[in-house]
């Protein structure tokens, strides 16, 4: 990709600032506060609304952890590791496994070696089952992938030890909490307060995950193979600009609080490469649910049609790419 951003402007975007990370205790405070409200709520509707909101907040908290995988949430690497491990405790999976998978995803984005590219296949029965199962019970499949499958396949030596140590830590914390809860006669209530927000988090995570890359050109690089979703200011704020995903993939060392500025600077290159910018997570997700799992042939045809629909008579051609600044796909 031709670097169309001035080096001085890009250097400024790489700079760390501590003030934006004050959102971290704020988010944990909101999450805990919602749990307290749910615990004491007089009506079931309030309880379930709190569970839903807690899952949404967990999605925001996980986007902080996501920056830790690139060692950019904090300046010190050990702080990124410590916060990453801490954040993952309620989510079952290990930070080590997630980080290693995520870095491979960045390295091989939208290619046969991308560990996250399960939406691409031959549209067989197994592809359809996996695709729609992820949409419904993504949190379960994610746990299986990151607790068992990926670590056994990819992690060796110190990384494998770190992963299984984290899983052991999760087990100790979980057993300790539920033994205490059982002694107090509140085990069922504690389980509900953990489990149902986690299920809602999994659904939000599935929407985000599918929307970031589904339907983008296959094996076309970081920029063309990623989708930015403008979404809305509130969602962008709570999910820490993860929706500006093209910029993150091209410049993963830019902290979350500078991604919106990065998007503005990248717009000329995004338009030049005819990359995908959509407005709505839900629109992209529902489109994916209607069209089902991908195949290479369908991907080429789909992007060819999109190119023809969006390119003007004098517009440069883009290989399998698409630019949609005002269209929800």
From TrEMBL:
Residues 42-275 form the Fatty acid desaturase domain. InterPro entries: FA_desaturase_dom. Residues 317-329 have a biased composition (Polar residues). GO terms for molecular function: sphingolipid delta-4 desaturase activity. This is Fatty acid desaturase. Keywords: Membrane, Transmembrane, Transmembrane helix. Residues 307-329 are annotated as: Disordered. It holds the Pfam family FA_desaturase. The chain crosses the membrane at residues 21-39, 45-66, 78-98, 129-149, 161-180, 186-204. It comes from the Bacteria. GO terms for biological process: ceramide biosynthetic process. The keyword Ligase does not apply. GO terms for cellular component: membrane. The keyword RNA-binding does not apply.
């Amino acid at each position: 990709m031709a670097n169309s951003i001035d080096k001085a402007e890009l250097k400024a975007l790489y700079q760390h600032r501590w003030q934006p990370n004050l959102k971290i205790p704020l988010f944990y405070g909101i999450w805990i506060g919602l749990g307290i409200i749910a615990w004491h709520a007089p009506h079931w509707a309030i309880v379930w609304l709190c569970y839903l909101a807690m899952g949404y907040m967990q999605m925001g908290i996980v986007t902080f952890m996501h920056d830790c995988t690139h060692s950019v949430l904090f300046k010190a690497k050990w702080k990124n590791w410590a916060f990453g491990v801490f954040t993952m405790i309620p989510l079952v999976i290990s930070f080590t496994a997630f980080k290693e998978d995520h870095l491979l995803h960045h390295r091989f984005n939208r290619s046969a070696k991308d560990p996250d590219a399960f939406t691409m296949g031959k549209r067989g029965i197994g592809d359809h089952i996996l695709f729609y199962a992820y949409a419904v019970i993504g949190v379960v499949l994610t746990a299986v992938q990151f607790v068992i499958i990926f670590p056994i396949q990819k992690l060796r030596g110190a990384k494998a030890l770190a992963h299984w140590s984290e899983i052991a830590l999760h087990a100790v914390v979980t057993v300790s909490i539920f033994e205490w809860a059982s002694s107090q006669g509140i085990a069922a209530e504690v389980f509900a307060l953990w489990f149902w927000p986690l299920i809602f988090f999994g659904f939000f995570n599935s929407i985000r995950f599918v929307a970031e890359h589904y339907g983008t050109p296959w094996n076309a690089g970081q920029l063309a193979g990623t989708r930015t979703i403008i979404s809305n200011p509130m969602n962008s704020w709570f999910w820490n600009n993860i929706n500006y995903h093209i910029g993150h993939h091209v410049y993963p060392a830019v902290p979350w609080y500078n991604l919106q500025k990065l998007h503005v600077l990248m717009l000329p290159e995004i338009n030049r490469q005819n990359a995908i910018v959509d407005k709505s997570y839900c629109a992209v997700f529902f489109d994916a649910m209607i069209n089902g799992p991908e195949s290479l042939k369908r991907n080429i045809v789909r992007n060819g049609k999109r190119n023809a629909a969006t390119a003007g008579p004098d517009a440069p051609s883009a290989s399998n790419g698409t630019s949609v600044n005002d269209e929800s796909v």
